[in-house]
Design goal:
Elements (H helix, E strand, L loop, with lengths): L2 H7 L4 H10 L11 H8 L3 H13 L3 E3 L6 E3 L2 H30 L2 E8 L2 E8 L14 E3 L4 H7 L4 H9 L14 H14 L2 E4 L6 E9 L5 E10 L5 H22 L12
Antiparallel strand pairs: 1-2, 3-4, 3-8, 4-5, 6-7, 7-8
Length: about 270
């Protein structure tokens, strides 16, 4: 520990320090832990562990499996990680890739991340064409009817998907919006199989979008890259044979910049 850190160590708040110990007890090999396991691992009384877990659960950092009663990381650490990636230069890493994608097809391209039950456009590069789909950085859209959202939801666990969808009803925005939960889950399985998602006039009439997932060094899906435009230019044939390969290539380029290698993807991802 360097001198500066040693000085600051004198100001540690014990309860915060222990709460962070709880969070850091979960890793790629240990996805779930019970109160007894955590108490033994951290050498703390069970009552202390329970109070720490209750606090972290209320704030969304921990969630409990209703069947096993064990605890696992919640959605909040993922949201905080997204903020970290954003300020670390996530957009800077993505910008040349997004620009190249627009040069290749002259359609509006974007980078998006999940924020709870919404998807946020963090980078947008417009097409030069007169007819375009208006978008801008910071725009928030529902996850269930957007390609950007579905391309990320398709790789979430069933429990995490339930948690996300609970916070936002699957509102029917157009006649094409999928609102049945079971049909939506089946749709996401197809998205994962194809490696890309399509918004087929599900959010706005006359507009189609396509998006594919971006992975980080651990293989975790952390964002999506997509294209959007009017159905007059976004035929399903063009999406399948022209746009999908371009988008998937772009996501692979950004994933590699984030340290991703194909072999790092977990078996259930």
């Amino acid at each position: 520990m360097d001198h500066q850190k040693k000085e600051k160590a004198d100001y540690l708040v014990q309860s915060v320090d222990r709460a962070l110990d709880v969070l850091e007890s979960f890793d790629y090999q240990t996805g779930e832990l019970g109160v007894t396991e955590l108490a033994e691992k951290l050498h703390l009384p069970k009552n202390n562990i329970f109070r720490l877990l209750a606090t972290l659960e209320v704030r969304g950092y921990i969630e409990q499996d209703k069947k096993t009663a064990n605890y696992r990381l919640g959605i909040k650490p993922f949201e905080v990680a997204n903020v970290f990636l954003h300020h670390l230069g996530f957009r800077r890493q993505a910008r040349p890739i997004i620009e190249e994608l627009v040069d290749q097809c002259d359609e509006t391209a974007y980078l998006a991340v999940l924020d709870g039950s919404e998807v946020i456009y963090v980078l947008v590069q417009d097409t030069t064409q007169m007819v375009r789909v208006a978008s801008f950085p910071g725009r928030r859209l529902p996850v269930h009817c957007t390609a950007a959202g579905k391309a990320q939801l398709a790789y979430e666990s069933a429990d995490r998907l339930d948690s996300i969808l609970q916070h936002q009803p699957m509102r029917k925005l157009t006649e094409h919006t999928i609102t049945d939960p079971q049909a939506f889950r089946e749709h996401l399985r197809e998205v994962a199989k194809l490696g890309f998602a399509v918004d087929d006039e599900e959010y706005e009439p006359w507009v189609r979008c396509i998006a594919a997932p971006v992975r980080d060094y651990s293989g975790k899906v952390v964002a999506s890259i997509g294209l959007s435009g009017p159905i007059s230019r976004f035929s399903l044939e063009r999406i399948k044979h022209k746009l999908a390969p371009l988008v998937k290539t772009a996501t692979m380029k950004l994933s590699e910049r984030l340290g991703y290698e194909a072999r790092t993807v977990p078996a259930d991802q």
